[in-house]
Every structure is written in structure tokens, then in C-alpha cells.
Specification:
mainly beta; 26 strands; 38% strand
């Protein structure tokens, strides 16, 4: 009997020891909820940064469910000390003014307790976001710098999350040039009232949703695109098509880089079936008035982003569209210039290197159909010009 009691006592002591050990090793739920999420920046994947640089880190739900792409949380941080070249430095949680300035260390301002899979966007300086997780930007007047693309990360109360996506200015430039087809039978033409439709108005701050890479702009907003008449200068493209009108570099239009396509096509780019949280959207269009020979006031409306390669316009890229006009057909192409090998800040003026395109895309050919005041553009399957 004494031996049985001894075993019973030893068993109770062992269970108690195990329970005590678990209680010491497992953090309390409240501790996990308040556990700081640590973030760092890696200078090997972006531009050098200086001490005092501020960041707003935006988290959007990433799992493919009813919450995907919706705004989850945000936290603010700053770089307390300078980063060595090619080094990694941890960010410090802080309070910020709405314009992303005046960092004051505050451990409660970070993404404490965030746990799960999220799309992350770093914004610098850490300007204030809208309540729905968007930012209001006018790319013609504002300089907004953020991660080039959202990055999916699994986040927990331990470990450190590194920023591996480069930071880029959220601005893309668009220009449109017009050529006459290299055929003596093609009549001369005039172009007027050139506009971009779908990227907001000149004085409009559009809403940018970084999680789904979409924008929300007024439906009536248009951007006028300046043209310079080059018809008397005898300049041609590589195929001998005479240049008629050109958007000079200082007339190029700044737009917010985003996916410009209907939301079902946005879902395809994002590789998701959860379309419920995507914004209603459309292609980016150009419109103008064409006068050619005896034909007056032909309204032209062409989609610039209908091709799959063009639906997502990227930060710090320049898109130079070429419209080639023959007697009955219009052909549309685009040269795409990225920051690599091109001087983005200089923009190709004296000393710049904007002349090297990253790639060229043929966007389509349309036939001009109709007469009088009844004109229509009908897309044809093959390039005629």
C-alpha cells in the first residue's frame, strides 16, 4: 500500500512539473495579441535610405476568401540609424504626423499582434491612409513612394519580416504620337482634342488600393494630352511612316500605375477567384477627333490597356503609344520604357537616356467604318498597316 501511495505522489509531482513547464514556455494569449511584429529593410533591393526615414506598413488580407484584398491593419515605423551599404536594419515603431514626418518612438504604433498571411505594402514617407486602406494621390502634383508591388508574407508574433520589394515612385508617364501610313495614297489628317479617359482629371486625387492594385477615379474625369504639330518636319519612324503629331516629354501625362481592366480581368492578373472585393473598373482609353480628306469629326476611342501585357501599368515606367493612320485603318502600338537604363528623373531631356525601350507591344488594328456623322471603329484580327 505504501508503494502505491508513493507512485501516486510521484505521478502527481510529475504532472505538476509538466504543467509548470508548459505555463513557463507558452506565452499568454494577451501576450501574443500584444507581441510586436519586427520589420527590417534590406538596402540590397532598393535605393539607399537615411536615418530618420519613415514608413507606413499596410497589411491587406491575402488568403483567398471573403476578406481577400481588404484592408486589415497599419503600423508606422522609422529608421533610427543609418544602414551600412548592402546591410539590413530593423525599423522602430513610432508615431507620425499625417504627412509622415516627426517620428516619435512608440512601441504601440506598430503592427503588434498581427498574425496570419497578408499582402504588405511599405509607404515612405509614412503618410496617413484613408480608412478603407486606400491612399488619395494626384500623380501630377504629389510624390507618393511605396513598394512596387504588394508582397505576401506569413506574419506571427516572433521572427522578423524583411522588405524585399523595391520602393518606387507611384507615377507612370504616358505620351501619344500620330503617324501617317507610308503610302502616297493615304490622305493627310488632323488630330484634335486628345484625352486620356479612366485615370482621373488633371486636378483629381484618385484613390489607390494597393492590395488589389486598382484605382478609383471619377467617371467624367479626363486628362488632356498636349500635341506638337510635326507635319512639316519630315521625321519618320523605322518603317518610313511620317510623324504628324508628337507628345513632347514636357507634355507627357502622369497617371497612377495600376491595373486598368475590368475586374474579371483584374482577378486573372491577381490569380484569384474572389472577385467580390475588387473594384468595378475598366481599361484606360485615349480619345480624339480625326479629320482626314473629306471626312470630318471622326470620333476615335481606343483602349490602351486591353492587351494582357498592358493591363498592369507599372511605377516609374513611361508608355509611348504610336497611332498609325491609313485611309481606312488605324494601328496602335506602344514602346515601354522602364527605369533600368533610362533616366526617370531626367525624363530624356538633354543628357537623359529615355531612348531605349524595354519592349514594344502591338495593341491592335481598327477599321474606320461609316459615313457622314455616323462613324465606328471595328477591331480587325490582323494588322493591316
Amino acid at each position: 500500500m505504501k508503494q502505491k501511495n508513493l507512485f501516486r505522489i510521484m505521478g502527481c509531482l510529475l504532472v505538476g512539473a509538466l504543467l509548470l513547464s508548459c505555463s513557463q514556455e507558452e506565452p499568454l494569449a494577451s501576450e501574443q495579441e500584444d507581441a510586436p511584429v519586427r520589420f527590417d529593410i534590406d538596402t540590397r533591393v532598393g535605393e539607399p535610405v537615411t536615418a530618420g526615414t519613415t514608413y507606413r506598413i499596410m497589411a491587406y488580407h491575402a488568403l483567398e476568401n471573403t476578406n481577400q484584398f481588404l484592408f486589415a491593419r497599419t503600423g508606422t515605423y522609422y529608421l533610427k540609424e543609418a544602414v551600412p551599404d548592402g546591410g539590413i536594419a530593423e525599423l522602430t515603431a513610432c508615431r507620425l504626423d499625417d504627412d509622415g514626418t516627426n517620428p516619435a518612438a512608440d512601441a504601440t504604433a506598430g503592427l503588434n499582434g498581427l498574425n496570419g498571411t497578408y499582402y504588405l505594402i511599405f509607404v515612405s514617407p509614412g503618410v496617413k491612409n484613408n480608412s478603407d486602406g486606400s491612399f488619395s494621390i494626384n500623380p501630377r502634383t504629389d510624390k507618393f513612394v511605396a513598394s512596387k508591388l504588394p508582397e505576401s508574407k506569413v506574419i506571427g508574433p516572433y521572427g522578423r519580416v524583411s522588405m524585399t520589394t523595391p520602393m518606387m515612385e507611384y507615377r507612370a508617364m504616358v505620351g501619344i504620337d500620330f503617324y501617317k501610313a507610308n503610302n502616297p495614297s493615304v490622305d493627310a489628317f488632323e488630330i484634335s482634342d486628345l484625352k486620356l479617359v479612366g485615370a482621373g482629371a488633371a486636378d483629381e486625387a484618385v484613390k489607390v488600393f494597393p492590395g488589389s492594385r486598382q484605382i478609383e477615379a471619377s467617371k467624367e474625369g479626363v486628362l488632356a494630352v498636349g500635341l506638337t504639330d510635326r507635319r512639316t518636319e519630315s521625321e519618320t519612324d523605322a518603317k518610313g511612316n511620317p510623324l504628324y503629331y508628337q507628345t513632347l516629354e514636357n507634355d507627357q501625362v502622369a497617371i497612377v500605375p495600376a491595373i486598368y481592366a475590368p475586374k474579371t480581368e483584374v482577378a486573372g492578373i491577381l490569380k484569384t477567384t474572389a472577385v467580390g472585393n475588387l473594384r468595378e473598373s475598366d481599361y484606360l482609353y485615349m480619345t480624339c477627333i480625326l479629320k482626314q480628306g473629306t471626312r470630318d469629326n471622326i470620333p476615335i476611342r481606343l483602349p490602351l490597356t486591353a492587351r494582357e501585357e498592358m493591363r498592369q501599368m507599372l511605377p516609374q515606367h513611361t508608355y509611348l503609344f504610336r497611332v498609325i493612320i491609313s485611309s481606312n485603318y488605324i494601328n496602335l502600338e506602344v514602346d515601354v520604357f522602364d527605369k533600368t537604363g533610362n533616366d526617370w528623373e531626367d525624363g530624356g531631356s538633354e543628357g537623359g537616356t529615355i531612348e531605349t525601350p524595354k519592349y514594344t507591344v502591338t495593341l491592335g488594328t481598327w477599321q474606320i467604318v461609316g459615313n457622314g456623322d455616323d462613324w465606328e471603329l471595328v477591331e480587325v484580327p490582323e494588322q493591316i498597316i
